[in-house]
Structure formats: structure tokens, C-alpha cells
């Protein structure tokens, strides 16, 4: 949860870029962390559940119009994310990766796990993901998402 992430950042005095002491940068992180619950998390999870869980529970394929509607909802918040939060910056809070970037990339990996690539056709978003992956460490990033990216095997 967001509360636990903030607690851990404070308790273990993580490097400043994760949860900046600069009030303007911290406000950007906090702004994203407050926004993401009903936007990227809500829409990304909805797509994940619609494509994965719903067919498993019902034994029926999802109607194409339902999938299209859920996908469009995600596209709307992805546009907002790019325009409002990324703008022309490398990361959400500026020039360094933060907790906001970690939370955002995790939410966007969920749709990828069920075969919907939210980064496709979005060069700004794809480049941001690459930077976050590099900042975390490519191997750690891949290991962390391995189970999610192989979930279709269930």
C-alpha cells in the first residue's frame, strides 16, 4: 500500500529521490500517489480482471464490446498520465525516479500480463518505462514482474 511505502521510505531513510524532501517534488509524488488509486490502478486492474478473471469465473469469453470499453477507459487515464504527470520530464517528480514512478509502472505491468501492452504506440510512456526499469535494475525489474508476465499460463 501507499501508506506502507511511505512508512518504509521514512523509517529506513531511503535516498532522497524516492520520496523527496524538496516540497515541490514531494508534492508531485503525493499528487500522483493520490490520483492513481481511481485512475491507473482502477482502470489497469479492471482490464486485468476483465481479461483474466472474468473468463475464468464464467467460463465464457468477454464480449468484445466490454473489452473495448474497458480498454478505452485505460487509454483515457494513460493520456492523462502522459499529459499531466510525465509531461516532458524523465520521471513523475522531475529528473530522478521516485516512489510515484515505481507505483505507476507496477500498475501498468498488470495489463501487459494479460496481453495488453499499454506502452505500444506510446513512445513517451515506453521510454519512461525503460528509464524506470534501468533505475531499479533491469534484472530486478524482470524478476519482480516474472510471475505477472507469465500469468496467462494459469
TrEMBL record:
InterPro entries: Glutathione-S-Trfase_C-like, Glutathione-S-Trfase_C_sf, GST_C, GST_C_Theta, GST_Theta
Single GO MF descriptor: glutathione transferase activity
Keywords noted in UniProt: Cytoplasm, Transferase
Broad class of enzyme this protein falls into: transferase
This enzyme's EC code(s): 2.5.1.18
One record GO biological process: glutathione metabolic process
Cellular component GO terms, alphabetical: cytoplasm
Domain GST C-terminal: 22-154
Family per record: Belongs to the GST superfamily. Theta family.
Subunit and partners: Homodimer.
Name assigned to this protein: glutathione transferase
Species this protein is from: Galbula dea
Gene name as annotated: Gstt1_1
Amino acid at each position: 500500500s501507499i501508506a506502507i511505502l511511505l512508512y518504509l521510505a521514512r523509517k529506513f531513510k531511503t535516498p532522497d529521490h524516492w520520496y523527496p524532501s524538496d516540497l515541490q517534488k514531494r508534492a508531485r509524488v503525493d499528487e500522483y500517489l493520490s490520483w492513481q488509486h481511481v485512475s491507473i490502478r482502477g482502470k489497469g486492474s479492471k482490464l486485468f480482471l476483465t481479461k483474466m478473471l472474468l473468463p475464468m469465473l464464467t467460463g465464457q469469453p468477454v464480449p468484445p464490446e466490454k473489452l473495448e470499453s474497458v480498454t478505452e477507459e485505460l487509454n483515457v487515464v494513460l493520456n492523462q498520465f502522459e499529459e499531466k504527470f510525465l509531461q516532458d520530464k524523465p520521471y513523475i517528480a522531475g529528473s530522478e525516479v521516485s516512489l510515484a514512478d515505481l507505483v505507476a509502472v507496477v500498475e501498468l505491468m498488470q495489463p501487459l500480463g494479460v496481453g495488453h501492452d499499454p506502452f505500444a504506440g506510446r513512445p513517451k510512456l515506453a521510454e519512461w518505462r525503460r528509464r524506470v526499469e534501468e533505475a531499479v535494475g533491469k534484472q530486478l525489474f524482470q524478476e519482480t514482474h516474472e510471475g505477472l508476465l507469465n500469468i496467462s499460463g494459469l
